[in-house]
């Protein structure tokens, strides 16, 4: 195992996103648990093929699969810059992944995000970072989709926000009832995408967004 501190310092942020973490990530305990798991499977965790597996698995989980716990969605998005334009902004095809809390396997796919500026514009890379901060946790795809849209409203000062996530759920693809190519699509609309003084305006915004992402959706 690697020489790592028993508790890596984590930032206690965004406890309302995904499955809340009750403490900090215990790197040493995680590696011991992986070694125990390999032993429970009848494998030699100290052998030539798996001697560094506990460290590798820990690094993957801590840095990538669960790295969102150490990110603040507000800081990931940033303040943007003042701009009077109010036209819809769409960022399509953002790679996204999360971890299913039921089976402890990842799901992965694409997030399509849009917002109606409320006086501020945000960098496209910043929006992708926001998706990472929210997705890289134990969470459900449905929650992730809603959390992304609500974060754009709350932290991005948007008049409205929308998010569609299309993902492959490994717990479904590898399950007993698997069919081989199932994809799950979840949608969330907030603000003027959901309602406005004139209901037809919200419907028009939703349709415009859905057309924009459908025109280039990957098969």
Automatic annotation (TrEMBL):
Q: In which pathway does it act?
A: Cofactor biosynthesis; 7,8-dihydroneopterin triphosphate biosynthesis; 7,8-dihydroneopterin triphosphate from GTP: step 1/1
Q: Which gene encodes it?
A: folE
**Which organism does this sequence originate in?**
Candidatus Accumulibacter appositus
Swiss-Prot/TrEMBL catalytic activity: GTP + H2O = 7,8-dihydroneopterin 3'-triphosphate + formate + H(+)
Which keywords accompany this UniProt record? GTP-binding, Hydrolase, Metal-binding, Nucleotide-binding, One-carbon metabolism, Zinc
Q: What is this protein called?
A: GTP cyclohydrolase 1
Which InterPro entries does the UniProt entry name for this protein?
A: GTP-CH-I_C/QueF, GTP-CH-I_N, GTP_CycHdrlase_I, GTP_CycHdrlase_I_CS, GTP_CycHdrlase_I_dom
**The protein's assembly and partners:** Homopolymer.
Q: Which enzyme class?
A: hydrolase
Which family, according to the similarity comment? Belongs to the GTP cyclohydrolase I family.
């Amino acid at each position: 195992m690697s020489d790592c501190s028993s508790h890596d310092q984590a930032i206690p942020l965004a406890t309302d996103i995904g499955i809340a973490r009750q403490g900090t990530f215990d790197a040493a305990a995680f590696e011991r648990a992986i070694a125990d798991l390999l032993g429970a499977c009848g494998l030699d965790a100290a052998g030539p093929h798996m001697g560094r597996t506990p460290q590798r698995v820990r690094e993957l989980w801590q840095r990538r699969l669960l790295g969102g716990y150490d990110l603040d969605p507000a800081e990931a998005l940033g303040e943007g810059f003042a701009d009077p334009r109010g036209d819809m902004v769409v960022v399509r095809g953002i790679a996204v992944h999360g971890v299913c809390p039921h089976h402890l396997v990842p799901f992965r796919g694409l997030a399509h995000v849009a917002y109606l500026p409320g006086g501020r514009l945000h960098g496209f890379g910043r929006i992708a970072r926001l998706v990472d901060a929210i997705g890289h946790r134990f969470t459900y795809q449905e929650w992730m989709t809603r959390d992304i849209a609500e974060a754009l409203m709350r932290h991005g000062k948007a008049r409205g926000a929308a998010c569609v996530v299309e993902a492959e759920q490994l717990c479904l693809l590898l399950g007993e009832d698997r069919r081989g190519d199932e994809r799950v699509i979840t949608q969330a609309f907030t603000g003027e995408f959901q309602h406005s003084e004139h209901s037809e305006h919200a419907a028009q915004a939703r349709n415009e967004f859905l057309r924009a992402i459908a025109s280039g959706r990957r098969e």
